[in-house]
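Quick note —
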Amino acid sequence: MHENDEKNVLIYMLAGVGLGALIGAAAGLLFAPKPGSEMREDLAEKFKELKGKTEEWISEQRSKRGVSEALEEVGA
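Predicted structure written out below.
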């Protein structure tokens, strides 16, 4: 896979995650039987969780890319 392809995949994945988070948040607000303050706290917690998972995934992808680049240099 070329570097540009990897960047495009990452961009599309992050866009999909962001869109999914927005749709989920909107659905949660529309169908939640909780008061507004509780809902905001729940959404903030879920957002932090999603952000952490996304950052972890990005770090993993960067380290994998670094390993593959190092292997290519050794093989060259």
